[in-house]
Amino acid sequence: MQVPFFIALRYFFTKSKQSIINLINLISIGVVLVATASLFIVLSAFSGLKDFGLSFSNSFDPSVRVSARYGKTLQVDSIQLEAINALDEVILASPVLEEKVFLSFNNKNQVALLKGVGDRYPEVVQIDSLIVSGNWFKNDFDEVVIGGGIANNLSLGVYDYTSFLTLSAPKRKGGIGLGKTPFIKETALVSGIYFANEELDKKHLFARVELARRLLQRSHGEYTYLEINTIENPNLDSLKASLKKILSQDTTVLNRAQLNAALYKMLNTENLAVYLIFSLIIIIALFNVVGSLIMMFLDKKPQLKILFAMGLRPKEIQRVFFYLGGLICWVGGGLGVLVGALLVFIQGYSPLLYVPGTSLPYPVLFELNNFLIVLFTILILGTLTTAWATRNMDKKGSLL
Questions:
Q1: Would you call 147 helix, strand, or coil by DSSP?
Q2: With contact defined as beta carbons under 8 Å apart, do 175 and 182 qualify?
Q3: What's the pLDDT band for 103 if we cut at 50, 70, 90?
Q4: What residue segments make up the domains of the chain, in order of their start?
Q5: Under 8 Å between Cβ of 381 and 286
Q6: First to last CA, the chain
Q7: pLDDT tens column, 302-318
Q8: What is the rounded distance in angstroms from the CA atom of residue 61 to the CA atom of residue 64?
Q9: What backbone phi and psi angles, to 5 degrees, belong to 226?
Q10: Which helix (H) or strand (E) holds 229?
């Protein structure tokens, strides 16, 4: 096995007398290099876009959300909340009261989803990082933080003390008499406007849980769900068991990926599609290696008689060209991965490309799994291509 490999090394590094053969070999290595680098760059760019897109979702969704398995409300008292916050997997847990409300401002109306949260809620979900105008709740009186879509629809600004936002919700308690309104109303000052994405911006607004409790007529300890900021990669099964032990009702515990199952499924499907498309490009590029091997075989055919005379069997001759094709694929692929990684690092630290019409660098993300995926892809495809191209070279020293 060593002799065929050393002969293949000599053929790989030694220039042929015919310059066209040398040119074909260089073109084969170059094509494999470009195709491999392209696959790595595209996967890194997709990872960057995925990370950039999810950063908004991650700033809006908690690590873990706990809701009642049956019914709309979750009963959590102060003792239970303290016990949950004491768990090893939990950094901070915050109960949330959520319900649809009717918004009114200067004869403009909209339905939105009110989230009543505690003062430490930004430690659970970094919603305050998305605020582009104003601030998170700072004063003692009733304030709300609204999405940019809501602000645009209602023509709202921050800290407008001349006109307040009106929030309305249907009465849950008490009868509705003749001439009485069926709604409970509260007014609040807009203290901040956030931007996450188009869907969320026109759907959600945040208020202190006390305001939400008055408006929605909920009692203390009655919440819609519990949002938890956990340590990185917590043991979800262990956390579920601990929560089941602490809480007195059946609950559903979902992590961030499960909360956005459709989004993650779409991103993973797109990632797979991109990988398959560029893997097909690599397969097409590897046909150049097949042509290169054929030309090398024809060029070295007179020398094969000497190798036969020295005692090499046809199977070993086949291995010579198998190793030669492998070297072309592996060297070209290895250089391609390194070139791709270098370009990704350059784009990450000293951007060359920007999103059209903006000053935002095109996002890329170097991930070890992308590096390994591309490396193994070129190794496997290169090996299979070379094995197919040399499959009949041991039959009477011919190609066919």
A1: strand
A2: no
A3: very high
A4: 2-57+263-389, 64-256
A5: yes
A6: 24
A7: 666 666 666 667 677 77
A8: 8
A9: -120, 125
A10: strand 225-230
